[in-house]
Amino acid sequence: MTQNRIEWIDLAKGIGMLLVMFGHVPIPQDLSKFIYTFHVPLFFFLSGLLFSISKYPSFKTFLNKKFFSLIIPYFGLSIILTIWFFVIGFVGNPDPIGLPTRIIGIVLSIRNVFGTGTLWFISCLFITELIFYIILRRYQHSLVKIIASSAFLSIIGVGIVAFYNKPLVWNIDAALVVIIFFGLGYSIKNIDGLLNKITRPYLLPLYFLLTFVVGMSNNNIDLFSNQYGNYVLFYIAAFSGIGLVLTISKLINKNLILQFVGMNTLLLLLLHTMIFNLLQYLIPFAADLPFIKSALMGCVFVSITVLISTIFVKITNKYLPILVGKNNQINKSVIQKELSQKV
Predict the structure, then answer these.
(1) Could you list the residue range(s) of the whole structural domain that residue 222 is in?
(2) pLDDT tens digits for 146-174?
(3) Nearest alpha-carbon partner for 265 in 95, 125, 169, 107
(4) By C-alpha distance, which of 237, 266, 209 is closest to 33?
(5) Most buried residue, 16, 29, 130, 192, by CB count within 10 Å?
(6) How many domains does the chain contain in total?
């Protein structure tokens, strides 16, 4: 895979991360609803696209690498977030959840219960990759069985949500629901030329129209709160939204800001929460102002957040790379070779 190919994947991650930020600031409801139809599934698809079993000759190797790339960042960033809310509470904005509950939340990683915030995604991704790794070890040479297994597990996840409708420890329920995105991301990479075919520029209007019409026809989507609406509509809109972002990323080709965001999603996942929280503390009345709830002000909030984050990203990458899983960077040559051969 050429450097250009790496860049467009970083662009897609960058777009996805910006959409996450937009989803957490006061913007028009319809815009928020559109974003939520696909922005989280996008990350699982991209993770599947970049997943290669060749990097993990044994289960022990897999756990070791994921320990450094996901588990340490999850606990490290969670501790920072907990300290942040404690400090904010100390200076006059009490944490509604409380320190003991947050500590329990770090260990159990149950979203929407113990205040794990956006970091639930990291533990959910770990569980998703763990389950998918087990699938691959069994059906490595059969894409049909890989896709079928992923779809079957997604149905199980949907069933859990439908009948229990409460988040499980380490977000196992969400991991099952979204594993089909991860599985298809991995599988599409391994079908000759398919990734190029589904990202042709002429498909862009179709993807947008399908995402908009189907997504807006469904109820509000929020994986964090177990809100999927109609599951058929959810999966259709999510996949078309993924196609939309991938195609746009291919067309953009190069953008330093988006690439920066895409290369630092784990840290930005934490930082944007802290910065938004600080802004709410500094200007508590702002959320009630009509002009704040606009796409333009959303752009302003997100731009300020990215600008402020730049400093902390550079410091972290230089002095604390282990916090974001970068001290154990896996050589990308295996993934590069696979994608260059398949797309």
Answers:
(1) 3-342
(2) 999 999 999 999 999 999 988 999 999 99
(3) 125
(4) 237
(5) 16
(6) 1
Residues found in the chain = 343
What per-residue confidence (pLDDT) applies to 327?
64
In which residue are the tokens 């696979």 written? 338
